[in-house]
Amino acid sequence: MKEKLMVMVDVALGRIPAQLVLKNANLVNVFTGEIYPTDIAIHMGYVAGLGEYHGAQEIDCTGKFVTPGLIDAHVHIESAMVTPDQFAKAILPRGTTTVIADPHEIANVAGIPGIAYLMESAENLPLNVLMMLPSCVPATPFENSGADLKAEDLAELMAHPKVMGLGEVMDTNSVLNCRHGVFDKIVLAKKANKQIDGHSPGLAGKDLTAYIMAGIRSDHETVNVEEARERLRLGATIMLREGSQARNVKDLLPVVTPETQQHCFFCSDDKHPSEILSEGHIDHNVRLAIAEGLDPVTAIRMATINPAKHFGIPNVGAVAPGYKADLLIVDDLTEFRVEQIFKKGRLVAKDGTALFETEPINDSSMRRSVKISPLSDTTFDLPPNYQQLPVIGINSFSLLTDRLEYDETKRDSYHKITVIERHHATGSHYSALIAGFGDFKGAIASTVAHDSHNIVVLGANDEDMRLAVETLRDIGGGLTLILDHEIIGSLPLPIAGLMSDRPVQEVNDKLEQLKQKAYQLGVTPDIDPFMTLQFMALPVIPDLKITDIGLFDVTNFEFIR
Questions:
Q1: pLDDT band at residue 557, thresholds of 50, 70 and 90?
Q2: Do the Cβ atoms of 504 and 89 come closer than 8 Å?
Q3: Are 482 and 464 in contact (CB under 8 A)?
Q4: Separation CA 301–CA 163 (nearest Å)
Q5: Digit-coded pLDDT (tens) for 52-96
Q6: Chain mean position to CA 37
Q7: Where are the extended beta strands (E) located within 148-253?
Q8: What is the predicted pLDDT for the residue at 218?
Q9: What is the 8-class DSSP label of residue 267?
Q10: Which of 15, 43, 242, 322 is most solvent-facing, going by the fewest CB within 10 Å?
Q11: How far apart (Å, rounded) are the C-alpha atoms in residues 454 and 445?
Q12: pLDDT 10s digits, 27-54
């Protein structure tokens, strides 16, 4: 280290030429808020100096702007349905050089080995992938998942230098009722002097105060200015989220002021292939904020230095001496079109194209994750008292559902929905009725089913539903569409039943083809068929959901028998 520092000092003083110099750049200085012309000397992956420099390689940046690489403060990589290497190839050309990933999706399938797989997959990527360890696996005790992670299971990984802390604490009830399991995890993170991410939709007053008192210092679930201001007043930071489903940047921007901006930053949370390809990643958040009137330098700070400081990421988030040369060349600060991306001084993407290749890793332990007991003629049977049970009501482009009374006159418009445990072949399964899927005649199924990721299948008849489940078993997980006992199409997601190792564009093309075929088969056009299906088994979003154990009343937090 000493020799390297001495060389860097020599470069900073101009005694020896830098390996790379960005000449005549308009630097966005996130410390002072200034924009001014300067050369940027880069050596051995770090910024060596600002001023007038010469180097072995020089790039003329006249008329261009240089900013730090962008940071996504909270993301589930698995939501992009591709492995970390393919994810990196999709978002690095958009300017994201660091992500804070919460791997709770794969952890619900494969536990600690799943987290280790994601970390190993990201080890040699030019994308800086940092982790928050999942706090809630499973998300609730009302379903069977692939793992049950306690504090002692997380202890070894919490000490890893790429682990930034404890992931979103969704179980607010356990925090407020001082249950030992969640506090064991909170204390584990606090003893390691690491951050704890929040997830507290709707919490207010003393409940919110107590939640933050426990050490939970951020929230990405804030949806309006009032919620954001209350959290900021209590010392929490706000992540302005812009994902595929949850879009909160516009609504939250009024809370960003000169006094509060340092406590605000951007995240994507869940972003699917189509939106990454059409909109971008964190660059989209920046563009959107600027278009809504936010000062460009403030928007860039929120995507760079602010999250870096919050998470304590060393030497990241700024273009300054001693900082990693993770930086962007941008054409202007209004459209914020990223032209060139450097990671530790190496050009890794240009004009929307990744310039790096990746080496495959051994992912055999994450394959063949669909383990189900043999299906029978009764697997998809409804409960004997189904006419006395409520029907799940789908809402247009919403994750919220309604609790509908069963109506015999509408029986032909209902579909059957079944959740089947797929991690340990326990045979656990449950079926109910669902309304709002349109005049769909076949069956549709997925192994992506938040958060426990069991198999969820919806259909008009048992035969097609059975073939859909068997198809997912045979392809190792993914999405499938069936009609008249024929496979119309499938999207294999062989890595934990959540991800493909194919490029994002290819995955998106197949997904869009499946969706269009589903619409052609009668799915109502005002829902996303697969996304809607994937959230029907999440028993934390009101009002009525289904797990492999039963029909669940989210409002009253109890099963309906």
A1: confident
A2: yes
A3: yes
A4: 23
A5: 999 999 999 999 999 999 999 999 999 999 999 999 999 999 999
A6: 36
A7: 163-169, 195-198, 218-219, 237-241
A8: 97
A9: E
A10: 15
A11: 10
A12: 999 999 999 999 999 999 999 999 999 9
**Strands 327-330 and 65-68: what pairing?**
antiparallel
Q: Which fold has domain 68-309?
A: TIM Barrel (3.20.20)
Cα–chain center distance at 104:
9
Distance of alpha carbon 131 from alpha carbon 142, whole angstroms: 26
Contact 102, 336 (CB under 8 A): no
Are domains 2-63 and 68-309 of this chain identical in fold? no
Q: Looking at domain 2-63, which CATH architecture does it have?
A: Roll (2.30)
The chain-wide mean pLDDT, for the chain, equals 96
CA gap 435, 438 in Å, rounded? 8
pLDDT bracket for residue 361 (50, 70, 90): confident
Tokens of 185: 């995890």
Smallest CA-to-CA distance from 514 within 446, 417, 420 is with 446
Q: Is 169 within 8 Å of 182 (Cβ atoms)?
A: yes
Residue ranges per domain, the chain? 2-63, 68-309, 367-560
**Which is it for strands 128-133 and 96-101: parallel, antiparallel or unpaired?**
parallel
Work out the pLDDT band at 504, boundaries 50, 70, 90.
very high
